[in-house]
Amino acid sequence: MFSAAMAAILVSMAMLLVRAVQGPTVFDRVLSVNSFGTKTVLLIAVLGFLSGRPAFLDLALVYALMNFISTIAVLKFSRFGRLGQGHSKLEGQPMAES
Amino acid sequence: MNNVLDLISWMCLLSGSFFALVSSLAVLRLPDFYNRVHGAGITDTVGAGLILLGLAFQAGFSLISFKLALVLVFMVLTGPTASHALAKAAYRLGLEPVVSHQKEDPTSAA
Description:
The complex is a heterodimer of chains A (98) and B (110). Chain A has 98 residues and is mainly alpha-helical. Chain A has helices at residues 2-22, 26-51, 56-80. The interface between A and B is large, with 44 and 48 residues.
């Protein structure tokens, strides 16, 4: 039933963690953490059905929102150097490795 | 009718989890960053869509399936947006895609 879907989601989360550790650039890590968050949303939804608690879907919705905002925040920080407004002196500098 | 709904829900869940596995395999094994972004986009749209659709068939027509539809709408809206923002940020900060350099013009003869 739902156990097969949950096992598949857990295996795919483990594979994403390997890429998060291994990825040569910072963008690989941001990508795998973003996908990990999406898989977490699916895991929460399936777990809610597995345990018979429909309230887990509210958690899934909130975590989907937080995942998106955190990805955009990390990207903004890596581009501008801070989370405030406007440009900073870091524009035009070479990409940060690792 | 119940058995048909169960069967459809099963098929959606299994194929959705198959696509989720394929997507994370692509993120793990593809050689370049931009290829991986393309592979990760599968989770947000097809993987999430099929899994949540399978769960909605289990729940019937109720508040639960409405919440599942909300989660799906939000992930379809924000998943490709985040992928685009990531690819654009990587390109702006200097990460070049790997292209193959061919020594001859491929349209010429032999």
